[in-house]
UniProtKB/TrEMBL annotation:
<protein>
    <submittedName>
        <fullName>Uncharacterized protein</fullName>
    </submittedName>
</protein>
Amino acid sequence: MQEEDGDLAHFCCDELEDAVSSDAEASLIEHDSGLILLNLGQREADGETGTVLTTIRFCPFCGTEIQTDEDIEAALGAVETYD
């Protein structure tokens, strides 16, 4: 598969494509911004429970870099919270 400039939804392998979901409860989430996020679980703070998400740079299955720091910073700059 050929990667296009700015295409953060590029899947490097079938395993990643199968694992990524738009479901906020999934382990690997594709955000509307195009970022692929790792769901670390639930956290309670100040009486409210929320989902803890983190960005990943490398595919957990094949090790390919799927998002650069620049990709992540650009996408996070356009998004304040995950809905």
